[in-house]
Write a structure and sequence with these properties.
The protein is α/β, with parallel strands linked by helices. It is about 35% helix and about 25% strand.
């Protein structure tokens, strides 16, 4: 039972609000650099979350039991520098990486340019690249899982549904290969700072 959970890049605060029931006595803190995110925070007033707008390193000088970095690393200009700096600030970290990079996304290229222009992704990951980045920055990966995003996304048209069938077939044979080939998946990682 963590005494404190901080989320860097908390956005509207929905993840922290969702954690309140599971962690009724845990101090929850959310940090985001986007002032527009603060307009949503009053919706979670009953969840007793401490929110702050601005740079995490300027706003907080304490350490936490858990830091959440969900869909954040791919937006950072210097992910190595950021991760090396945040590494000592918590006992455990939960990372969520969209796995934008696949053989299909490279061939089509449009999915990569879309997430760059519309979502702001500066870096693209496969599972191996995400885990390697964490290792390079001094983290020990304790566990990782695919989230099933490829199979939980809404199927809007026949092409998307057809791609879903192909994805299920390939992933049934070899999940890692299927994700590297066709993409559409995300990765959640539990890590801790590597002991010297």
């Amino acid at each position: 039972r963590p005494a404190s959970i901080a989320e860097i890049g908390c956005g509207a605060g929905g993840v922290l609000a969702g954690l309140r029931d599971a962690f009724p006595n845990t101090r929850l803190l959310g940090f985001d650099i986007a002032p527009a995110a603060a307009t949503f925070w009053p919706l979670h007033q009953s969840a007793r979350i401490e929110f702050a707008v601005g740079d995490f390193f300027e706003l907080s000088h304490e350490d936490y039991d858990v830091i959440l970095l969900l869909d954040v690393v791919e937006h950072l200009a210097d992910p190595h520098g950021f991760l090396a700096r945040v590494r000592g600030r918590a006992r455990h970290f939960v990372f969520h990486f969209p796995l934008d990079l696949s053989a299909l996304s490279v061939l089509r290229e449009t999915p990569l340019t879309f997430v760059r222009e519309k979502v702001g992704h500066l870096h693209y990951f496969t599972k191996s690249l995400a885990l390697a980045l964490l290792g390079e920055c001094g983290f020990e990966v304790l566990d990782w899982r695919y989230t099933g995003a490829a199979f939980n996304a809404p199927r809007r048209d026949w092409k998307t549904r057809l791609a879903g069938v192909a994805r299920r077939l390939v992933c049934a044979l070899n999940k890692d290969f299927g994700v590297r080939l066709l993409g559409g998946e995300t990765l959640i990682v539990l890590a801790q700072p590597r002991s010297s």
